Amino acid sequence: MVYNGEQKTIEQMLQILSEELKRPPLLDYLPVILSVIAIIISGITIFYEIKLNNTNLQSIYFEQIFGEYLKTKIPKVMGKLDFDENGKLRREYREINKVFMAMMRECGYFKYAKNDFFHSLCTKTQELDEYLVELAGKTFLSRKEQDLIKIEVHSKVQDIVQLINRNYQHF
Length: 171
Description:
Layout: H1 4-22, H2 26-78, H3 93-106, H4 109-113, H5 115-136, H6 143-169
Helix pairs in contact: 2-3, 2-6, 3-5, 5-6
């Protein structure tokens, strides 16, 4: 014989069991969760691959445009920076300006690809050009003064080289 209280308890248990069977277990959601995670990771990987490819491309441009200037042309013309016996800057200073102006013409790509860098490079190169032209019109008889001027010119060139290197490293 079944009492009313026991029958309700059995019915409640069957109802709870039925509801539990209708609800999918957590393991059924696992493939969906893993798929979403895989899609997110794939998206992140694609993003970084694109960024890496752009970086490599920019690095190639930096090397093609600036490599020869930094390794050979600039050191060669900077070695010619000197004063004559009258205390005037030797005419070879024009070669320094020509090399930097040629470099600026060749790096026009960065005017569009990295405008801030290009603008800074133009500014520093123009400052060097104007400084050399200004020096060429003056006479410096003191050897100490001539040495200080050479150091200043080398410092301005060093600033340009550092600007190029910093931007190359940021790619």
